[in-house]
């Protein structure tokens, strides 16, 4: 006899469950250079209830050789605990923890009927979600300027609703995606990403792959196989148009003159480029900082005695001083104004904007007096990552917004931790084809 996941009771150690192991992945401490803490599991039972499990590092040698994604197990002697809301991968409020008394026994497919896959997809408005599926429009590879090492893959996805989102993958995920996209021929491409980490910053949605993320493409899963026909149906109904994927794009390196020429001749509304130039001056007309809303990161308006955010209108928002510096740059072909914001300016000055204000006891944040920490940047050469928006393609643009600043002399990024290479696993001749998985 066994019970379903929904019948488990917290703390009870004499319970028996039957479940299919959908996924397992290494749990690592990112604050301690990727130190291995154990393995996390994702299980599903007969009622399609998803539950998370964990195996501590001390018990890995006992259980890890027994783990096979897609296989079914009888599990007993485990500890039932409340789910950690910070690292929660399911809606279920309980999770199981393996210990020295736990028994893990693999069973045959004929034992009971448990689904081989389960995904929960939300619309753009309902995000954050843990899974997302969409048509791949474009992919871009970001490499370190000094070492050419791949740092990040950016995937532009079109959801079934027609809305588009950006998903970022780093380290081993970036390398894996770069290899997959690099071999794909031009055509329609569908991608499913599990266990993503959605974040809102400045009112915009950013999706990031996590250690638990896994990617599926085209006809690998039932969910991906059924997506393209629905998208084609929407296309016929005039809701959206299918886009052709043409391969991995590399961010091009342009001079400032070429950048200006591109703006005049291009019909695009968005583009990204790298540009290497020397900072020759700092414009002080518009000051060097602004007060940011703690809720939405937009600029706050100073009233007589208070600060107001005209974007989110939050009454609880607290103002925080952030950098906004207009850099006059020149690369030998021509000059321009690049606007750099907080993250990169903190890296260049080694000081928060609020610290400078505190030291100077400056109550007029947008005055024309530039701090010495900012003036010290003049004369230095950097590579700027420029992201062009629809505003830049108008006659009113006078500056370019900097997404990231690279120091040409910076050290190569240190490796984090080694990820296992993909291994194809056959679960046996009696297993359905859909249970063939990639670990």
From TrEMBL:
CDD domains to which the protein is assigned, alphabetical: RPA1_DBD_A_like (cd04480), RPA1_DBD_C (cd04476)
Keywords: DNA-binding, Metal-binding, Zinc, Zinc-finger
Domain Replication protein A 70 kDa DNA-binding subunit B/D first OB fold: 17-105
Keyword check for Manganese: no
Keyword Metal-binding: yes
The organism's place on the tree of life at top rank: Eukaryota
A GO term for molecular function: DNA binding
Domain Replication factor A C-terminal: 276-398
Protein family per UniProt: Belongs to the replication factor A protein 1 family.
PANTHER family per the UniProt record, alphabetical: OS03G0429900 PROTEIN
Protein's recorded name: Replication factor A C-terminal domain-containing protein
Organism name: Thlaspi arvense (Field penny-cress)
């Amino acid at each position: 006899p066994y019970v379903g996941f929904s019948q488990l009771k917290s703390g009870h150690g004499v319970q028996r469950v039957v479940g299919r192991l959908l996924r397992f992945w290494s749990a690592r401490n990112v604050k301690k250079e990727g130190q291995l803490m154990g393995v996390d599991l994702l299980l599903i039972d007969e009622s399609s209830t998803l539950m998370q499990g964990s195996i501590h590092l001390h018990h890995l040698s006992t259980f890890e050789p027994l783990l096979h994604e897609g296989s079914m197990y009888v599990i007993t002697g485990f500890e039932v605990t409340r789910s950690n809301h910070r690292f929660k991968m399911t809606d279920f409020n309980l999770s199981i923890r393996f210990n020295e008394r736990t028994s893990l026994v693999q069973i045959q497919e004929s034992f009971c009927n448990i689904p081989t896959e389960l995904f929960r997809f939300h619309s753009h408005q309902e995000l954050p979600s843990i899974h997302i599926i969409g048509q791949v429009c474009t992919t871009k590879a970001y490499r370190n300027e000094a070492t050419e090492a791949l740092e990040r893959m950016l995937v532009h996805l079109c959801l079934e609703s027609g809305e588009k989102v950006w998903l970022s993958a780093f380290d081993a995920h970036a390398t894996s995606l770069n290899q997959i996209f690099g071999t794909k021929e031009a055509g329609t491409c569908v991608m499913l990403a599990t266990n993503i980490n959605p974040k809102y910053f400045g009112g915009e949605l950013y999706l990031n792959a996590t250690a638990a993320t896994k990617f599926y493409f085209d006809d690998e899963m039932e969910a991906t196989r059924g997506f393209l026909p629905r998208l084609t149906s929407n296309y016929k109904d005039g809701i959206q148009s299918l886009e052709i994927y043409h391969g991995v794009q590399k961010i091009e390196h342009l001079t400032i003159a070429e950048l200006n020429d591109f703006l005049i001749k291009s019909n695009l509304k968005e583009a990204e480029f790298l540009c290497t130039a020397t900072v020759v001056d700092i414009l002080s007309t518009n000051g060097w900082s602004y007060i940011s809303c703690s809720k939405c990161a937009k600029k706050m308006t100073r009233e007589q005695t208070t600060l107001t955010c005209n974007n989110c209108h939050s009454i609880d928002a607290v103002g925080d001083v952030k950098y906004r510096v207009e850099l006059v740059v020149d690369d030998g072909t021509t000059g321009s104004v690049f606007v750099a914001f907080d993250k990169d300016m903190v890296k260049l000055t080694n000081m928060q904007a609020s610290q400078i204000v505190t030291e100077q006891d400056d109550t007029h944040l947008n005055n024309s007096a530039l701090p010495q920490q900012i003036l010290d940047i003049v004369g230095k050469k950097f590579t700027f990552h420029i992201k062009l928006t629809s505003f830049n393609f108008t006659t009113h643009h006078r500056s370019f917004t900097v997404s990231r600043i690279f120091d040409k002399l910076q050290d190569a990024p240190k490796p984090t931790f080694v990820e296992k290479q993909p291994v194809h696993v056959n679960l046996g001749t009696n297993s359905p084809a859909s249970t063939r998985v990639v670990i």
